[in-house]
Structure formats: structure tokens, C-alpha cells
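Propose amino acids for all 298 sites.
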């Protein structure tokens, strides 16, 4: 049987792989960028409500301040990110969005007293370098406005970091199901409002678009839910670095489904990211072992 930490890591890796499908499905929704985010939450809410109600634990209750903040971050996150997906390549939109570990590491250090080791900081720098290499190595002709899409994706990284921190704060006292339910319920009307204000097509124009919206709901429950569950068992910074698996999965899917060129430079960058994730995990395990040895009685 895997340990609690190992189980959380396995769940996190699987969740990151599932999240790699999100930008692909956004492209297929046949609706506006913010509207596709609204449908993602709308189709996820019944599952989240059922899961939370049947958990037999704390129940639904009321949202905490951390949950409200997480919902607000989701609105900003998906608004900017879905527009970046429409303007630039899937690889760039996902890679730049996931450059959150720097912010998450610094805030986690200050807010949750999760002080990183020097080796972890080396792994973090390598992961960021690999992610940037993936972005710079992409074919510049992909997307209707790649420079603007890249800017939107970079800004999204700030909102994604805020979401990570808010969920970590909420998970200190509440279950992952309750955190997911309330953050999603708060974010859904916000994204609908954004879609209406920007004059988007809210309703998908085809059955395939509706199917993609349902798929986004599943991705949200399984992928983002897995991240929220793992945040209750793993350090915030380590979680943020591990989620960098997502842009690698998205880049491969974009290459397979949309014929987006996967260049040699992108492949090298992806390899660097994977190596950095392994190094970060090893650093974290070494730190945990050293702390346990120091706490052991003489």
C-alpha cells in the first residue's frame, strides 16, 4: 500500500494529466472563451454537490473567506486563460499559465511557513527554464494573435497562483469537496457575466460543442478536484511544480489533435520540466527525512 504522501503524489500527477485535456476541449466547445468556462462549472456543479452531500462529513455548509477568494481567482483565471487559448497555441497558453510555482513558493514560504530547501529552489529554477523553453520554442505562426495570447497566459499565472494559495488556505479546515463546490459555485455566475458583457456566444452551436462542455465539467471535477485534494496533503510549492506536467500533456495533445508543431526545442524543454519535477520530489523527500531524523529522540 502506498503511503499517504505517495498516494497524494499519484493523485496529483493523474490530475495534472487530466487537466491537460482542458485547453483541447475549450477549442472544441463552439462557444465564447468565458462562456466555455461557465459551462465547465455548470456541468461540474451537480457532481460536486452530489459528492459533497454524500460524503457524510462536514456537509455543504457556508463558504469561508478562502473559498470566496478561490472562486474569484477562478473567474480571473479562466477568463484570461480561455482567451489566451483562442489567441495562441495550446502549448504556449498552458505553459505560460503554469508559471505559478515562483509566486506560490514565495507566498507559501511566508504564509504557510513552508520554507523550501536550496535543492528545491534549483529544481524550481530548472522547471521554470524548461517551461519558458517550451513556450519560446513553439511555432510562432500558431494562433490568431500569439503575442497577445502569450501576455494573457502570463497574466493568468498570477490568478492561478492566487487560486492555489486560496485552496491551500481553505483545505486547512475543510474537505476538498466542499472547497471545490463553493469555489465553483461562486465562479460560475462570474464567468457568465463576463461572457455576457463581452458579447460572446454563450450557447454552443453544435452537439459536439455541448459534448466538449460536458467534458470540461468532468475535467474540472477530476483534475482540479485532484489538485485540491492533494493540496491538503502536500506542500503548496511542491504541488505547483508537479502540476507543470499539465503543459507537457497539453502540448502533446495539441500536436496530435490540432497538428500544432511540436518542435525539438519544445521537446527538450518538456524533458527539463520532467527532470526538475523529479528533482523537486527528491528534495522534498530528503527534507522530510531530515526533519524526522532531527525530531527523533536521542
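Proposal:
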Amino acid at each position: 500500500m502506498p503511503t499517504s504522501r505517495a498516494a497524494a503524489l499519484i493523485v496529483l500527477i493523474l490530475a495534472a494529466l487530466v487537466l491537460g485535456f482542458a485547453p483541447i476541449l475549450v477549442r472544441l466547445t463552439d462557444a465564447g472563451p468565458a462562456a466555455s468556462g461557465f459551462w465547465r462549472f455548470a456541468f461540474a456543479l451537480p457532481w460536486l454537490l452530489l459528492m459533497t452531500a454524500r460524503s457524510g462529513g462536514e456537509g455543504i455548509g457556508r463558504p469561508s473567506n478562502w473559498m470566496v477568494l478561490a472562486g474569484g481567482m477562478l473567474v480571473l483565471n479562466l477568463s484570461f486563460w480561455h482567451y489566451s487559448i483562442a489567441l495562441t497555441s495550446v502549448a504556449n497558453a498552458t505553459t505560460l499559465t503554469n508559471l505559478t510555482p515562483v509566486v506560490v513558493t514565495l507566498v507559501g514560504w511566508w504564509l504557510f511557513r513552508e520554507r523550501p530547501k536550496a535543492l528545491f529552489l534549483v529544481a524550481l529554477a530548472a522547471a521554470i527554464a524548461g517551461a519558458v523553453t517550451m513556450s519560446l520554442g513553439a511555432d510562432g505562426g500558431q494562433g490568431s494573435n500569439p503575442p497577445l495570447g502569450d501576455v494573457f497566459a502570463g497574466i493568468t499565472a498570477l490568478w492561478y497562483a492566487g487560486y492555489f494559495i486560496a485552496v491551500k488556505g481553505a483545505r486547512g479546515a475543510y474537505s476538498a469537496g466542499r472547497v471545490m463546490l463553493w469555489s465553483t459555485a461562486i465562479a460560475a455566475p462570474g464567468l457568465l457575466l463576463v461572457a455576457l458583457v463581452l458579447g460572446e456566444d454563450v450557447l454552443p452551436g453544435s452537439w459536439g460543442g455541448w459534448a466538449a462542455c460536458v467534458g470540461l465539467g468532468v475535467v474540472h471535477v477530476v483534475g482540479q478536484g485532484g489538485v485540491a485534494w492533494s493540496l491538503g496533503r502536500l506542500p503548496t510549492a511542491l504541488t505547483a511544480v508537479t502540476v507543470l506536467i499539465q503543459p507537457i500533456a497539453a502540448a502533446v495533445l495539441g500536436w496530435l489533435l490540432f497538428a500544432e508543431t511540436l518542435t525539438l526545442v519544445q521537446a527538450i524543454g518538456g524533458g527539463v520540466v520532467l527532470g526538475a519535477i523529479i528533482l523537486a520530489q527528491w528534495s522534498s523527500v530528503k527534507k522530510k527525512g531530515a526533519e524526522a531524523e532531527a525530531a527523533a529522540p536521542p
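The chain has a mean pLDDT of 79. The chain has 13 helices and no strands.
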